[in-house]
Amino acid sequence: MANGKSIDPAIVEMLQIAQAEGISTAFDRAERTAPCPIGHTGNCCRNCFMGPCRLVGKTTEGVCGATLETVVARNFARWVAAGAAAHSDHGRGMVLTLLAAAKGEAPDFKIKDERKLRKVAGYLGVKTEGRSVEEIAIDVANEALVNFGSQKEEVAYLRRAPQKRQALWRRLGIAPRGVDREVVELMHRTNMGTDQDAEHILTQTMRTSLADGWGGSMLSTDISDILFGTPTPVAARSNLGVLREDEVNIVVHGHEPTLSEMMVVAASDPESIEYAKSKGAKGINLVGICCTANEILMRRGIPVIGNLLSQELAILTGAIDAMVVDIQCVMQGIVSVAGHYHTKIITTSPKAKISGATHIEFDEHRALEVAKLIIRTGIDNFPNRKKVHIPDVVDRLVAGFSHEYIAYMQGGIYRESFRPLNDNIMNGRIRGAVGVVGCNNPRVTHDSPHISIVKELIRNDVLVVTTGCDAIACAKQGLLTPEVMDYAGPGLREVCQAIGVPPVLHVGSCVDNSRILTILTQMATEGGLGEDISDLPVAGICPEWMSEKAISIGTYFVASGVHTIFGVGSPVSGSKEVTSMINEGWTEKVGAGLEFEPDWQKMVEKVLAHIDAKRTALRLEEYRPTRYARSESYLPGDSFASEVYQQGKYSAAGP
Ligand code: XCC
Ligand code: SF4
Q1: Dihedral sign from CA coordinates of 399, 401, 405, 408
Q2: Average pLDDT over the chain, rounded to an integer
């Protein structure tokens, strides 16, 4: 049963246990529940009760007369609206925490990164001279809030994009105003009987997505850095083997760093540790799943035990005393799986409850107190453990590559720049760069497309930056270590060895895809690679997407000038017109398109062809794979020899 479902050895092992115990997980439910064939391609409209209308076969319009094009575009648009809302509401939460912290109302939160605060103050037009950190922070938070509610004014961070891009957005009328306004307007426009021109809907869709990328998400990243520190490289461990049989295991899962950061503090509190010992445990082991894990991994080196599809199987270890969740990507299924074990599922966000779970509401005003209470609840549950089975699978990794650090590592404090990266792209040592990001989806072999694509890209001298569940997949397969250099092409390897970084850089959680926007802007403005993001030999790939948020990210990547390819399947395949509007159409408008391609090999081929075409347009050196090869260290194809994977803990690539 586990065969072909995952390439993660720990997950394969746990799937066998799930089968033996007769416990169902997303893997089985995906098998039992085929995707609805009408919704899958975007052909179903349920925007009013004259329908729902299924535009299949001879039915080419809804009761209201809406065409297939309109319906498919509206469905796509609403996903972007929801995805942008999710990221941005998370971002708003960070801003409100900063405000409370600065006002002294959330005493457990401190402003950790003053330098970043000042930088952000600069972006937002907040005066810093002669003012206290708190005064600056209050103004920064209030200015940041304007970005959510503003009616006419553009999202402030648009000004951080290359000039040419900004001008293009304004010309096309897609420079977003306040995040809330754009999301509301898109919901309005896709309401029955409003905007019924597919292209027009899709244009507003880009605008809304930009409010996410350059608004809600970018603010979320910045404010999180101010509160908790801007990441720098940190070594850590990953996968289920990090769980401890003799310690209280507490998993944080979801997206917001506010509670999870406090949990880190609470878990190392001597009183809590003493209490754990009084219950027979040797200590407290705090670990993470999904993006809240990425947040505390990037800043604190807290181990990450898995990505989206690991959440239920982690509980099957019987070793998790509490799984603490906040918002987004938390499967309701964890509650029923936990029902077979002693694990307590604890919901914490005022925005998210799950029936059957314990709710301990997080309150930033008494953050540490709540975090300690949650830890105590986990400790109290430790003696209830029954059978424990922890797979012996652990990998090592290095994370923490903020865009600030990436600039710093290319020249130190006084000469930080993107010159070395640009130069090495120009001379062909590095062919290009690709952001590989996004979710898991049980419709494809768990982690397989992620890993196959990343390995194939670095073998082709493409630098990879990764976030979200792709980053966790890479972590679990040892791809975030300097040793992975063996898989990298010779040019890329040389550069990474010189700088001392892995060829796959973990840049953070999903809101941190905004860091990629900053990196791209820095590359575009550094010189030598054109003047706009759409000139760069770069691309985006989202191999195993499932979330509305992923669609919003993909759309803002494209609207920012990054050609982007999604795997799994296409939610717009019901309409050829819409399929072409978001690919060829958007390429004409914004210099980049959005494609859906389920075959990972084809995705890589397309991306490499795209990169090479950009190189040609820039009149760069033609990329030659063996140009920087030293005979003793490299033979073409060497680094991808499948024996290498099979030898050790690395799983074989490919489905
Ligand atoms: Fe969620 Fe962020 Fe997707 Fe993973 S990558 S499944 S959105 S946790 Ni964001
Ligand atoms: Fe059908 Fe039109 Fe209503 Fe959609 S909006 S459900 S297409 S009648």
Answers
A1: positive
A2: 94
Exposed/middle/buried for residue 51 (C-beta within 10 Å: 0-12, 13-18, 19+): middle
More confident residue, 525 or 635: 525
- Mutational test site, ligand 2, from 50, 54, 60, 191, max ligand atoms within 8 Å of CB: 50
Question: Largest alpha-carbon pair distance within the chain?
Answer: 71
Ligand 2 centroid, distance to 63 Cα (angstroms): 6
Burial level of 115, CB count in 10 A (0-12/13-18/19+)?
exposed
What is the model's pTM? 0.94
Closest by CA position to 378, among listed 250, 553, 504: 250
Work out the angle between the directed axes of helices 198-211 and 548-559 (0-180°, nearest 10).
90
Say which amino acid occupies 247.
E
How far lies 399's CA from each of 124, 296, 303, 508, 514, in Å? Answer: 29, 10, 11, 8, 17
The confidence band for 639, taking pLDDT boundaries of 50, 70 and 90, is: very low
Q: Which atom of ligand 1 is nearest to the CA of 547?
A: 7
Kindly give, in sequence order, each residue whose CB lies less than 8 Å from that of residue 107, ignoring residues fewer than 6 positions away: none
CA distance 536 to 45: 38
Residue 404 tokens read as 């600030």
Q: How confident is the model at residue 652 (pLDDT cuts 50, 70, 90)?
A: very low
Burial of 481 (0-12, 13-18, 19+ CB in 10 A): middle
What span, in angstroms and rounded, lies between the C-alpha atoms of 96 and 138? 10
Residue 68 DSSP one-character state: H
pLDDT at 3: 66
Nearest to 550 by CA among 290, 364, 360: 290
pLDDT in tens, 418-429: 999 999 999 999
Tell me which residue has tokens 């109302």: 105
Determine whether the shortest distance from the Cβ of 52 to ligand 2 is under 6 A.
Answer: yes
Section 559-582 average pLDDT: 98
Q: With 50 as the cut, is the pLDDT of residue 617 above it? A: yes
CA distances, 491 to each of 266, 297, 421, 496 (Å)? 45, 29, 12, 9
Packing angle of the helix pair 513-526, 419-426 (nearest 10 deg) = 70
Query: pLDDT at residue 643 above 50?
Result: no
The atom of ligand 1 lying closest to the CA of 290 is: 8
Contact 453, 600 (CB under 8 A): yes
Angle between helices 367-381 and 270-278 (to 10 degrees): 20
Q: Per residue, what are the HEC states of 559-613?
A: HCCCCEEECCCCCCCCCHHHHHHHHHHHHHHHCCCEEECCCHHHHHHHHHHHHHH
What lies within 8 Å, CB to CB, of 160 at 6+ separation is 123, 214, 218, 518, 521
Cβ proximity of 418 and 287 under 8 Å: no
Distance 230 CA to ligand 1 centre (A): 21
